[in-house]
Amino acid sequence: MPETLSTAERRRRWREAALPSLRGVVLDLGAGSGVAADHLAPEVEWLALEPRRRTDPALSERLGRRTTARLLIAPAELIPLESEAVDAVIASTVLCSVRKPARALAEIRRVLRPGGKLVFFEHVAADRRTWTSALQAVYSPLSRLIDHGCDPHRRTGELITAAGFADVVMQRSEAPGVLGTVEPLIDGTAIR
Ligand SMILES: C[S@@+](CC[C@H](N)C(=O)[O-])C[C@H]1O[C@@H](n2cnc3c(N)ncnc32)[C@H](O)[C@@H]1O
Question: What residues does the Methyltransferase type domain cover (predicted)?
């Protein structure tokens, strides 16, 4: 029987597997507490992006602990970097929250150097015409209102596939969701 793991545990395991191999300049979109930085190699230049000036105090601590790190205050839809400026982008449970995910993905492609890599872990909409998808559609407006814009009914996997990357590798998994439903998850990489 497959292991029943929470979203948080799956995300923790994904961080451990996906982040230590990143090198060069790494942009962490919607960095939150900056927990991703704990898994980055020390020589990585970490750019933590958050849309608002008021950030999690843990983010400042983590920024202070690294040799090369910078905070960018901007939305993912308008990244304040030159084109082809970064080697990798981390998107961990953030594309659910941005206002314009297709716009954010276009910005990710723009700032990645050719051959650069987006690594992602996101919760997504359930398959169409399922009970979970119907429920997600119903509670999406409430979730967006009370949970920092988070949309549980967003088809982020389809958006990543359609964003024009050269190569996308994606896998799906599930975690326990609300009201006895499952929460569909995706993780993977997209190469510019
Ligand atoms: C669920 S948290 C994830 C934090 C972190 N990436 C992690 O894996 O723990 C979502 C983050 O996305 C940020 N966010 C929301 N809208 C955003 C936007 N338009 N552009 C960039 N970040 C955004 C929030 O401020 C928050 O820190």
Answer: 27-120
C-beta of residue 18 within 8 angstroms of C-beta of residue 121: yes
Q: Could you tell me the CATH number of the domain that includes residue 140? A: 3.40.50.150
Residues of the domain holding 138: 7-191
Provide the total of helices (H) and of strands (E) in the chain, helices listed first. 5, 7
Within 13 Å, how many C-alpha atoms sit on residue 144's CB side?
15
pLDDT in tens, the chain (192 residues): 567 899 999 999 999 999 999 999 999 999 999 999 999 999 999 999 999 999 999 999 999 999 999 999 999 999 999 999 999 999 999 999 999 999 999 999 999 999 999 999 999 999 999 988 999 999 899 999 998 889 999 999 999 999 999 999 999 999 998 778 889 999 999 999
Question: Is residue 1 in a domain?
Answer: no
| Closest residue by CA, ligand 1 atom 11 | 30
Domain total of the chain: 1
Rounded to whole angstroms, how far apart are CA atoms 97 and 153? 11
